[in-house]
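Lab notebook, bench 4. We co-purified these components, and the gel suggests they stay together. Before we commit to crystallization screens, I want a quick structural picture of the whole thing.
Request: model the full complex, all chains together.
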Amino acid sequence: MEPGAEHQQQLRSLRDFLLVYNRMTELCFRHCVCNLNYRLLTGREETCLDACAGKLVRSNHRLMSAYVALMPSIMQRRVADYETSVAQGSAQEGPAAPAALPGAGAHGAPLDLPAAPGPDGPLQGAPGAGTSHG
Amino acid sequence: MDPLRAQQLAAELEVDMMADMYNRMTQACHRKCVPPHYKDAELSKGESVCLDRCVAKYLEVHERMGKKLTELSLQDEELLKRMQQGTGTT
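Here is the predicted assembly.
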């Protein structure tokens, strides 16, 4: 990978990680912090926050694994459907120039999705972050 | 992309994320401390104190989450290294 593209990828990973971090903070705060009579966190709140953080990280890993497992077949199906429709269209029109395959981004899915598990994604941008282990 | 530009982008990203965090914090604390009655435009003492404490707690939660995320990420990395070493020696 070129250094420029690698930097872009790293920035994207970092951005994803920071977004997840902010969402986690908001979610866990909303759920666990109920007692605003004190400035400091209570023991109960601390326990809840630790559990919340662990649960969210693990569920994020699991979601990522499931997504990576399912997405390639969905993309393949989409490509096959598109190719079929293009072939049908060009057969009807005659020897017209077939349209180029539009970016999968038109359907909202990223083109650079790797087929193999263990992509760079949320929580991978953390310093020394690991990959999902399912 | 040269490293300086990458650094600049990373700094901009951090500023964006801090702004995002601030917005979420505002929303969360408003929801917790200011009941939607709106009889009076002024903040009551209870609401003011609640907001102060809420901000303090939110920032502490944010710090705690950061540490926990780093800790869990490092654990994952350790596990992955051990797995890779295990497959390497067999």
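The two ends of chain A are 27 Å apart (CA to CA). Worth comparing against the SEC data before the next meeting. Chain A touches chain B through 43 residues (CB under 8 Å).
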